[in-house]
């Protein structure tokens, strides 16, 4: 009741009182499994409240204590399906917190543990639909982690496995709105992975199928804000594909459909922070297309509307780091000022973004996502400084950006995307050294970038992005630094190799 009324502080106090009583009961009768399970449930509820408060460290501790009890129960009776499922549910709770705190390796391990348990249960009785759904949901979570780690192929495999189950469940119960929604979500996940790999046609097909389901669900329950929100998200994804294909009018139309729904939801629920944030994102998407169409002044207006919402959210809840991502809004506004060649205004926006993201990384120095945002912002500052011919300042900014992204990669060494970001930072340093006439330093930075991309290309030979990156680096070396015979020769051979490989890949079979 207290949670439903929004009083999470009082709810936490009540749960802790109950936990104390249950702990005393469990200790008085160590063999009483019912009390032990109730104790684990109370740990879980306390963790849920702590997550709602943004206290993820305490939530992780509560969920870990919950899991410890459930593991003991599950081992004591391996035939008790409820206890096995409880254990897997605790693994997912832990994984969620680990993912939210940037511990992707830990989250992946936790989700895999939960998946193994759910798969055993599903295999033991294929007629229990709930267990099948558990497998599908967990596969999607694993796919999310793989996406964050840069393992696009692995993510697509996980999402497709989840989609197979979601389709089976939706087909078996066409009137089950929850399962229809699960199917819509699964289609979006697969579409996201396909889009990330450049398969925009496949992504558009899946997004369109998801949109049809979301539209039907929204029409069947027009007062349900959640279903209206799902429809807005589907329009946004459709817009993303058209954007990727360069179909700007179609992208703008889809984004405006999303914006219309988001405005209605936000107006009806001014206290719903996630929906306010979604409205901010919708304005940003519209602004992106307007900027691409050359309507920079109109785009700035859209970005300013987005920024106003994000600033309001940050002020209303300064302890919630999620809203502090208004740094991204500052960066977008800075990009527009730079497009107008107003470098002073651009730097002002970028510096405002930097102030926000520095507070975040100071509070959570081991969050790789925030460290990456820090690196990106520093690179934007460096780009503007370089455009002002302030080479020394640009070198300092790019150097700090490199340090930040290397710290992120050290925390999450399996994240391929972060490795590419390091290579990009070296490319930035090469550019500023080139501007300063420091050819040797520029070549050294390009060598560093090339070594990273070569390593990633060997690890992911089917990912064309790495090959394109190598070709780009080769071009910079061969065209801009032909005086270095050793590198120029290798670079030239690499460019020819990748061009031939690209032609073979496109040749009809």
Question: Could you list some keywords that capture this structure?
Answer:
mainly alpha; single chain; 509 residues; 0% strand
Structure report:
With 509 residues, this protein is mainly α. The chain is built from 21 helices and no strands. It has helices at 8-28, 33-52, 56-76, 81-100, 104-124, 129-148, 152-172, 177-196, 200-220, 225-244, 248-268, 273-292, 296-316, 326-339, 343-363, 368-387, 391-411, 416-435, 439-459, 464-480, 485-506. Helix 6 runs parallel beside helix 8 (177-196), helix 10 (225-244) packs antiparallel against helix 11 (248-268) and helix 11 runs antiparallel to helix 12. It is globular. The termini are far apart. Mean pLDDT is 88; it is low at 1-5 and 482-509.
């Amino acid at each position: 009741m207290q949670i439903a009324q929004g009083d999470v502080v009082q709810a936490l106090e009540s749960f802790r009182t109950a936990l104390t009583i249950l702990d005393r009961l469990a200790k008085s009768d160590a063999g009483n499994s019912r009390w032990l399970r109730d104790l684990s449930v109370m740990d879980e509820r306390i963790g849920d409240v702590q997550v709602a408060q943004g206290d993820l460290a305490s939530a992780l501790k509560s969920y870990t204590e919950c899991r410890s009890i459930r593991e003991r129960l599950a081992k004591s009776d391996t035939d008790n399906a409820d206890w096995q499922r409880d254990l897997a549910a605790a693994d997912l709770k832990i994984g969620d917190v680990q993912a939210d705190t940037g511990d992707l390796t830990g989250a992946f391990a936790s989700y895999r543990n939960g998946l193994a348990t759910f798969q055993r249960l599903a295999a033991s009785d294929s007629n229990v639909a709930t267990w099948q759904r558990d497998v599908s949901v967990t596969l999607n979570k694993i796919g999310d982690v793989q996406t964050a780690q840069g393992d696009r192929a692995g993510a697509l495999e996980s999402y497709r496995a989840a989609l197979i189950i979601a389709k089976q469940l939706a087909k078996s119960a066409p009137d089950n709105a929850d399962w229809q929604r699960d199917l819509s979500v699964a289609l979006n996940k697969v579409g996201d992975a396909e889009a990330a790999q450049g398969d925009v046609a496949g992504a558009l097909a899946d997004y369109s199928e998801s949109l049809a389901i979301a539209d039907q669900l929204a029409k069947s329950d027009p007062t349900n804000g959640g279903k209206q929100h799902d429809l807005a998200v589907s329009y946004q994804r459709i817009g993303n594909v058209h954007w990727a294909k360069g179909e700007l009018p179609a992208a703008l139309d889809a984004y405006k459909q999303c914006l219309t729904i988001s405005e209605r939801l936000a107006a009806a629920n001014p206290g719903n922070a996630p929906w306010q944030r979604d409205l901010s994102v919708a304005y940003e998407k519209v602004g992106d297309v307007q900027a691409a169409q050359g309507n920079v002044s109109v785009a700035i207006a859209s970005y300013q509307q987005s920024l106003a919402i994000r600033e309001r959210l940050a002020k209303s809840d300064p302890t919630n780091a999620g809203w502090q991502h208004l740094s991204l809004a500052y960066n977008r506004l800075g990009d527009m000022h730079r497009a107008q060649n107003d470098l002073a205004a651009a730097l002002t926006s970028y510096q405002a973004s930097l102030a926000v993201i520095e507070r975040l990384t100071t509070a959570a120095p081991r969050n790789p996502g925030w460290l990456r945002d820090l690196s990106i912002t520093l690179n934007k500052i460096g780009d503007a400084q370089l455009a002002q011919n302030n080479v020394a300042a640009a070198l300092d900014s790019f150097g700090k950006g490199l340090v930040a992204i290397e710290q992120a990669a050290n925390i999450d060494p399996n994240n391929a995307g972060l490795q590419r970001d390091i290579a990009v930072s070296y490319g930035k340093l090469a550019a500023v050294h080139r501007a300063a006439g420091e050819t040797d330093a520029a070549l050294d930075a390009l060598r560093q970038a090339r070594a990273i991309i070569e390593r990633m290309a060997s690890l992911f030979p089917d990912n064309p992005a790495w090959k394109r990156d190598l070709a780009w680096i080769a071009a910079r070396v061969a065209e801009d630094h032909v005086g270095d015979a050793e590198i120029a020769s290798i670079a030239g051979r690499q460019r020819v190799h990748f061009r031939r490989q690209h032609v073979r890949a496109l040749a009809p079979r």
